[in-house]
Amino acid sequence: ARIVFLLPQHFHFNLMPVFLFVLQTPKKKITRELVQTVLARKPKMCSFLEWRDLKIVYKRYASLYFCCAIEDQDNELITLEIIHRYVELLDKYFGSVCELDIIFNFEKAYFILDEFLLGGEVQETSKKNVLKAIEQADLLQEEVSVISHSYTVSEITLKHAR
């Protein structure tokens, strides 16, 4: 995939879509055109469309559209499966992911995608392994946070003891 992004169903153009992975940063005009194209499609229409020199593959889950822009030679059905797997990972991590989870925890959404895809290609097919890596990273982050907090508390205690 060259571009992976999320769109809320009721997209406002003063907000940008959440770009999770981009090989080339799209310009505002191109982004607007792509968003309008996807959101204008009817629910019963095919989840694939030709757009410029790319194929857009998208899937709507609740109020979010998960979209990928892929090369002409890439397989649309595999891309749909990748989108579905990513949503499953988000659901496992957040417990039924919603738009607010992505907005307020976008760094986790990026991290989960990075554990799953590398350079737009699937790097790990096992959900169990991806979730394990995310869990380990969360534990490490907590440990660093606790150590950092304890140093701050120690410094404050030392300053007040003087």
Automatic annotation (TrEMBL):
Database matches in Pfam families: Clat_adaptor_s
Record domain AP complex mu/sigma subunit: where: 6-140
Major location category of this protein: membrane
A molecular-function term among this protein's GO annotations: clathrin adaptor activity
Keyword Protein transport listed: yes
Key words, A-Z: Coated pit, Cytoplasmic vesicle, Golgi apparatus, Membrane, Protein transport, Transport
GO CC terms in record: AP-1 adaptor complex; clathrin-coated pit
The protein's name: AP complex subunit sigma
Natural source organism: Myotis lucifugus (Little brown bat)
